[in-house]
Amino acid sequence: MSALSEIREQILRCQRCSLYSQPEHRCYVPGEGPEDARIMFIGEAPGQRENETGSPFVGPAGKFLEELLASAGMRREDVFITNIIKCKPPQNRDPFPIEIEACRHWIDSQLEIMKPRIVVTLGRYSMAKFFPKDTISKVHGQARRR
After folding, report:
1. Which distant-in-sequence residues (6+ apart) come within 8 Å of 133 by Cβ?
2. 108, 68 in Cβ contact below 8 A?
3. Which residues of 51-61 are buried (b: 16+ CB within 10 A; e: fewer)?
4. Strands, E, within the chain: which ranges?
5. How far apart are CA 81 and CA 97, in angstroms?
6. Which pTM value belongs to this model?
7. 79-128 pLDDT tens trace
8. Is 104 helix (H, G, I), strand (E, B) or coil?
9. What are the tens digits of pLDDT across the range 85-96?
10. For the chain, how far is it from start to end, CA to CA, in angstroms?
C-alpha cells in the first residue's frame, strides 16, 4: 500500500473533530489523484455532491476546474485535488478553526508525501494555510513562492 493510500485509510477512520459524527453525510473526502502529481489543488471543504460521492470537486466547481485544466492541456487525472478539511460542514458553512486544526495533520501529510512542485489554493481557507497574514482579495491570481 502506498503512503498516500495509508493516509487515505487513516482519514476514513478519523475522529479528530465533531464532523465525523454528522449523521447527514458520509463525512470523509480525503482527496484524489496520483501520488506523483506535480500539481496539488487545495479547496476549502467538501460540499454536498462531494459528500455523496467521496470525491473532491465533482459539482459545478469541479466542472469548472476540469474546464480550466483542459484549457491548460491537462486532465483531472494529472493533478491531486483535496481540501483543507476532509468532512462536509453542516449546511455548507465555513470550516471552524478547530476543524481546520484537526485536519492540519492530514493536509501536511499529503503535502509531505507528494512534495508537489505547485500548490494551487482554491479559496481563503486554503490560502491562509500558506499565507496566513494575507487576504485573498489582496493576492488573488498572483503566483507566490513560499
Report:
1. none
2. no
3. beeebbbbbeb
4. 39-43, 80-83, 118-121
5. 21
6. 0.92
7. 999 999 999 998 889 999 999 999 999 999 999 999 999 999 999 999 99
8. helix
9. 999 998 889 999
10. 31
